[in-house]
Amino acid sequence: MEIWINPACSKCRSALSLLDAEGADYTVRRYLEDVPSEDEIRGVLGRLGLEPWDITRTGEAEARELGVKDWPREAGSRDRWVRALAEHPKLIQRPIITAEDGTAVVARDEDAVREALSR
User: Fold this and answer.
1) Which of 9, 24, 32, 50 is catalytic?
2) Which InterPro entries match (predicted)?
3) Which one of 72, 85, 89, 114 is separated from 58 by 20 to 30 angstroms, measured CA to CA?
């Protein structure tokens, strides 16, 4: 299992604490430093069963500068959204845990972390 984190994020730190408390075997990816490629983002989206706009932090200053709230949320715009996430990783919702069974979860609460642990 891998967890994409921003160490400054309290939800990421909470998820790590729970993984540690449960004795989980995982690797940490500091995605602001080790930025995922567009292909990696597409892969995680497939594992999540979500679209790029579903995992975009639209309240971030960078998102406002880009005007992402006004971008179409449709298949034809998907590549634009993915490219924005790859170029501005701060916009990626966190933490994201990729589970052993090939799925993933946005682990913003304890239930989501436990869901990843159960897979």
Assistant:
1) 9
2) Arsenate_reductase-like, Thioredoxin-like_sf
3) 114
CA distances from 46 to 98, 104, 119 (A): 11, 9, 16
- Closest of 41, 10, 27, 26 to residue 110, by C-alpha: 10
Active site residue 12: no
2-117: CATH topology: Glutaredoxin (3.40.30)
| Domain extents in the chain | 2-117
Q: Which two tokens stand for residue 65?
A: 């500068």
The predicted model scores a pTM of 0.93
CA dihedral 85, 11, 95, 87 (to 10 degrees): 20
Three-state helix/strand/coil letters over the chain: CEEEECCCCHHHHHHHHHHHHCCCCCEEEECCCCCCCHHHHHHHHHHHCCCHHHHECCCCHHHHHHCHHHCCCCHHHHHHHHHHHHHCHHHECCCEEECCCCCEEECCCHHHHHHHHCC
